[in-house]
Amino acid sequence: MFHVKTYISKDSKWYEDRLPLEKFKNQYVHLEKDHKKLPDLANTIIHARLYGFVQITYKGKEILGEEEYGSIAGIWGILLNLIYDCLQNGYSVEYFPDYVMKLTLKAVDTETVQFEIPGKNFILHKKEFFVAVLTGALKYNQIVHPIYKRAFPEGNSVQALAFLKSKLKEVEQM
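Given the sequence above, the corresponding structure tokens read:
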């Protein structure tokens, strides 16, 4: 079973100072569970970039996590692009938003995909992986959408939510 969680930095200290992993664990919160603990989340979203990481685990093994940190919107964008391109072409390559790190996703067969990042290589059940990532992206967007909608009423967050919901439905029917 896949688990997908978004972790947001309480501030940018850990990111700017490049604190070691063991020291920045106290610098972030689990967005889906604890977003109300970020008192200034709306202001941060509107006036700055949210930093942190997306953690993806499968049967307790980390596929993506703390070591792959950066702009949360950028990370989610990369993951969604990987899935979209893989669905369209059977293969996708993206680069991490804040530093050069290549991510590759390719169909192995109709049931499995290969997900590669430097030093990690996974063969994953395609439908389960795609549904887990799309569901995680949808949860993230449902939390930040109301904030974006208030701040940028002409923005495209409504279209982003609709697109995520349609892709999730499409993948669930695979």
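Residues 126-151 form the longest helix (26 residues). Try to locate this feature in the token string yourself.
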